Amino acid sequence: MSGKILFFILIVNVISFVSCGNNVTSNNDNDTVTVSPNSTISTTHALTAVSDQPTTIGAPAELVVSDLPDDNGGFVIASFVVSPEHLTSVTSYLFFRKIAIDEEEAKWVQWAIVAVHPADESNRMNVIIPTVWDTLTSWKVHAATGSVIPQNGEPPQGMSAPVAEIVYGKSGTIHDEVTSSASNIVTAMSADNIAPGEFTAFDARGTGVGQLHLALSWIVPEDHGIVDTYSFADETCYIYGVVTYEIYRRKAFSNESAELIWSKGPLSTTFPDSTVDKFTLYEYYIKAYDGNPGHVVFSPAAKAMVSTGLGDLVLFGALWGSREGDADWYPIFDLNGDGEVGLGDLVVIGTFWADRFTSYSY
């Protein structure tokens, strides 16, 4: 073929990756990546036919990376002036990220690849890059010939820019074709920009007479659940509107501070509290956190008491009229915290009694 060499290369890498965000190690000298022994990733990487490849190609320039606005974290957007060989010899761009792995010193790893797309009127290309972790890291981009990975990602939040495919964890050298020198290096991070919505409802209930157990449940709006997805190591990974629910408790009508008693993960809607005492009115509330420490949503308060039986009422009656400081003072029967066992406390008990020994929440 007139001295031209036409070759086809098919590379198939199959490695097993356990979960989203698994750690890998990198080789900083030749920008190769290896995976930890218990990891797997399945990647089929087909190279296009290449004829008379150039020996050098121009590098992309003026790289800018910033947080993708108006999203729940997990993405940055990169903008750069394309290579002079864009859409001719150059068929893809490789993004590298300097990241600390297993608490070691930060190293450069190949993070993602994107196929070429037409540049805008300023000769720039914009690319959305999944980050997995919302951490501050350094970025750079190279142009490359020949190799194209199918782009499976969907642009988040209605964005139209192409989404880079994460290849972090791929074993072996990056590419057999020509790679340009690097662009300028920039530092950026993704961030959660949308606070979760308010709780719809929160309730605390007893579970039956004599059972030292209270059941908490809450209803959350849709934006507390899965709000976005991305592909990582051949798995679908999720971005949550809320990542943690913290449950706080204190004795109702007391001056004590609420105490953190449990933390629950995303999508949680219930919690059983078995660390309660009889004849004690408790007040609960929940803090919901997303990926941004500045975003905190509080639930309404809910009050509940372990179900009251007839024997408890007899004892309550014997203490009627006792006050704080009396010899027969039992503060546990002062349910409304006014310093006296009397009518106000009976109203609280009556509420539970009328509710068939289950609960009282508001």
Question: What are the key terms here?
Answer:
mainly beta; Immunoglobulin-like; disordered N terminus; disordered C terminus
What does this structure look like?
- The protein has helices spanning 310-318, 343-354, and strands at residues 6-7, 10-16, 24-27, 32-35, 40-46, 50-51, 61-67, 75-81, 90-99, 107-115, 124-130, 137-145, 165-166, 186-188, 201-206, 214-219, 226-232, 235-240, 244-251, 259-264, 270-273, 281-289, 296-298, 302-305.
- It is mostly beta strands and 362 residues long.
- It has two domains: 6-188, Immunoglobulins (Immunoglobulin-like), CATH 2.60.40; 201-354, Immunoglobulins (Immunoglobulin-like), CATH 2.60.40.10.
- Strands 13-10-9-12-14 form a five-stranded antiparallel β-sheet, with no helix packed on it.
- β19 and β20 form a beta hairpin.
- The protein is rod-shaped and about 95 Å long.
- The N and C termini lie far apart (83 Å).
Query: Taking strands numbered 1, 2, ... along the chain, how are they ordered across the largest sheet?
Result: 13-10-9-12-14
First-last Cα distance: 83 Å
CATH architecture descriptor name of the largest domain? Sandwich
Broad CATH class of the largest domain: Mainly Beta
CATH superfamily of the largest domain: Immunoglobulins
| Shape type | rod-shaped
Order of helices and strands: EEEEEEEEEEEEEEEEEEEEEEEEHH
Total helices: the number is 2
Question: Average pLDDT, to the nearest integer?
Answer: 75
Q: In CATH terms, what is the fold-level topology of the largest domain? A: Immunoglobulin-like
What are the low-pLDDT stretches, counting only 5+ consecutive residues below 50? 1-19, 21-51, 354-362
